[in-house]
Design goal:
Elements: E1 15-22, E2 26-27, H1 30-44, H2 50-61, E3 68-74, E4 80-86
Length: about 90
């Protein structure tokens, strides 16, 4: 049995990107993070709309006033989740 083969009983995984938010600079290296997620989404045939993702990230970080760790999750259906956690 090939350990690298996907298990048909498990749903496909979400894609996760972890980013740093700085209140003065915004999300650091945002374009690189989005490019990486776009490439991975295309490889897995997950829907990904870069413009929509940017808008959602802007809305999620608009009122933040301190540094945060941002986790962006993309499901196989194209649904997004954004988590903002205080930096430690």
């Amino acid at each position: 049995m090939d350990d690298a083969a996907p298990c048909p009983d498990l749903p496909p995984p979400d894609l996760i990107v972890t980013m740093t938010f700085d209140p003065m600079a915004g999300i650091l290296d945002l374009e690189e993070h989005l490019s990486g997620m776009k490439a991975e989404a295309a490889a897995r045939v997950y829907p990904f709309d870069r413009h929509d993702v940017r808008n959602e990230l802007q809305a999620a970080t608009f009122r933040l006033r301190d540094a945060r760790t941002i986790r962006l999750l993309l499901s196989p259906s194209g649904a997004l989740a954004i988590e903002a956690s205080p930096n430690r």
